[in-house]
Amino acid sequence: MAAPIPGSTHECEGSMASVKAVSSAAPLALRIVAECPVSKARACTLTLPHCAVSTPVFMPVGTQGTLKGITVDQLEDLDCQICLGNTYHLGMRPGPELIEKADGLHGFMKWNRNLLTDSGGFQMVSLVELSEVTEEGVTFHSPYDGKEILLTPEQSIAIQNSLGSDIMMQLDDVVSSTVKGPRVEEAMHRSVRWLDRCIAANKNPDRQNLFAIIQGGLDAKLRKACLDEMTKRDVPGFAIGGLSGGEEKDDFWKMVTLSTEHLPREKPRYLMGVGYALDLVVCVALGCDMFDCVFPTRTARFGSALVPWGSLQLKQKQYAKDFQPIDPDCQCPTCRRHSRAYLHALFKSDTAAMHHITIHNISYQLTLMQSVRQSIIEQRFPEFVKAFMKRMFPSREQYPSWAVEALQSVNICVC
Amino acid sequence: MRLELSRAVQGCRLGLLTGLGNTGQHSLEVPGCLLYTRCATVPHLTQDTLHTLRDLPSVTQVSVDSLAEHHEVLEEFKEGLRKFAGLHDTVLFCSLHDSANSIPAGHVTNKTVSVWGSGGRIELTAARFMAIQAAIQPDFYQSMADGETWQAGTSRKRVRKAVDRTLAHLDECLVLHQKTQELKQSEIFGVVEGGDILEERLRSARETAKRPVGGFVLDGFHSAAMDQDVRVQLIKATSAELPQEKPRLVLGVGRPDEVISCVEAGVDLFESFFPFQVTERGCALSFNYNIDPDPETAVLEFNGEMPAVKKLNSNGDENMTPYEMNLKDKRYHDDFRPLVEGCSCYCCEKHMRAYVHHLLVTNELLGGVLLMLHNMAHYLGFFKALREAITSDRLQDFKNRVLHCREGD
């Protein structure tokens, strides 16, 4: 693999042929390009079957095999190298058999770069009432036809094998982070057993990477136990799970940093369900490489445009006569051509207004990660973080204390 | 603007509308359609997706319906709608109403008409109408008009009033047009009314033709207003009263069969709201307009395998026409072919019926984007083929091809 040119984001020319020379075990190779000497941040190149991905990376979520109104060409033009598809939704409609016939999810939606699919477990627990977890799997009633469905680790992997994603997630026993007590421990141990069943069930270890998901809730002992167990398994990557619910941020960051502390350096770390700009920057500092979240694309459809100093609610009256672009410094197609005032007006007429904001928000997230990566490569990540905080918050008093502490824990002082 | 007619064949006018735009460098082939938009955006499309379409019409259409509520903003912006909307280098035509929406009746008075925005009804006098045009700064626009003659059983008296009011509005608009600095480069089109009454149509046409207008908008002829035969008869008669060298645009007509008969009756320009309506009901235009099919296609057709008529009640919209296919139908669940074989739009080059079907079934926004692209491409292709058929004296073959699918009705 050629060394990445500093500043270059076009790393999608890496081929699998060169990866085999690096690691023959899994269709994934992680090369650490730079590490921050102060914090735990690192910049890497993650080579996957469809192309190489520069990390840290934010992965937009295209739940039902589409990214909410954006074509795959538009997504490619934004330099997106990997995005998510949702096993639960796609497993329901149109179903794995059809997608397999269509050449996998890549062939179905015509996305030529990387895809990551989750296991379906989270949706089942969060979207469906009356779901029940047993050792066998998760039982629930389908919202489409009322039938009882059992999702086992084997079935989740079978669906994901049909989808053909570059990264698949194990089925884990998901418990809300606000739940306390013995259920958390039970779920953690079960997730380890389910990980083993998932590994055994993977029909395509040569072209699909199965990631483990570290559980353990907000209990340091449980998390550590989970880390100890799961890192014994030879999986190509690890996700940090169970942390994007309604928990306190003070507990959240401590579990993140505990997790990265005990995850192998040479494998990617994927923090699931995290997408607010501040959270991304802090968690990069704590050693995470990959992130996903529906927030930027979902909030776009409500007219909320993300900017370095917060967000603009474009449907509000104050923007009716605001003739600037969303962010004068942004280079996305929306900001290069349209004003806040036009978008405000368009929201009253046509769905395209949502698409414009979606494009901007994805661009914002991807550009943020590129800037973070660049600063790590150029050994100025702590300065980047300080400047980021200054831009985002009107004054130091308003810096969220959890973020200040989390950054302090990795030797970045923003106070 | 200038209309250069190259020939008139069996009533069809063929030519080029030139000198369009503020530098006069744009032109539009006739017969042709304008680019339908809502608030200056083609529905569902950003500029990037829009420009995957080739040979877009050089004239973009907007309506006062979607712009009246933004009057104040546009006035403060000062530089016109084109710039406000980020439209570079396009010619702008402004109509009164958006033909994709039906207008509630009963809101026209002697001095006012009403338009409907997102916040409800906005009443306009000629003065306010013209102030809005000054803020939009279109290249050409229709004068304010009373077109409420489409309801069944509209009295002769009412139709006469519509003609009278429309002429009065035109005269008032003309005066204001002359006085308005921002409209110095714009042209105003007169509106011909008259419902389904021949004498009133003729009167309206003759009187409107006396005024210094750049062209003519034929109103009150949309699908619900009258039968095809009556429409054709009236348009032919109206057309004879209008100066040949000025363009004629008909409002509210979009179905392929209606377009063809209006072209034969002397119409030059059409709106393109029809592909949008097809999109909104989850359908894709699929009718064949190619009069030189390859031999293989001809065989398929003979065997009845071409996209022919679908039963209109296969969970289709009641407004569905024989010119389209209903992508929501279960039969497309595992159909891996493009929407229309041989179509070169983004949707057909990249995606398949099964994917579009999935997007529609799951209510995904991309469904609308892809269908809009296909339907617009198909519609533009239809107009291009129509012009070619007229040019090469093969209009009858063209009609046979396009209209044959109605035989299965």
Explained architecture:
Chain B: It is found in: Cytoplasm; Mitochondrion outer membrane. Chain B: Pfam families: TGT. Chain B: Keywords: Cytoplasm, Membrane, Metal-binding, Mitochondrion, Mitochondrion outer membrane, tRNA processing, Zinc. Chain B: Its cofactor is Zn(2+). The complex is a heterodimer of chains A (415) and B (409). Chain A is 40% helix and 16% strand. With 415 residues, chain A is an alpha/beta fold. In chain A, β11, α9 and β12 form a beta-alpha-beta unit. In chain A, 55% of the residues are buried. Residues 1-24 of chain A have low confidence and may be disordered. Chain B is an alpha/beta fold and 409 residues long. Helix content of chain B is 38%, strand content 18%. In chain B, the strands form 4 sheets. A 9-stranded parallel β-sheet of chain B has the order 4-14-13-12-11-10-7-6-5. Chain B has a 3-stranded antiparallel β-sheet with strand order 1-2-3. Chain B has a two-stranded antiparallel sheet with strand order 8-9. In chain B, β2 and β3 form a beta hairpin. Classes of the chains: A alpha/beta (415), B alpha/beta (409). The A-B interface holds A 64-74, 77, 89, 93-94, 98, 101-102, 108-110, 320-321, 323, 333-334, 337-339, 341-342, 345-346, 348-356, 359 and B 38-39, 41-49, 52, 66, 69-70, 73, 76-77, 84-86, 117-119, 333-334, 336, 346, 350-352, 354-355, 358-359, 361-362, 364-366, 368-370.
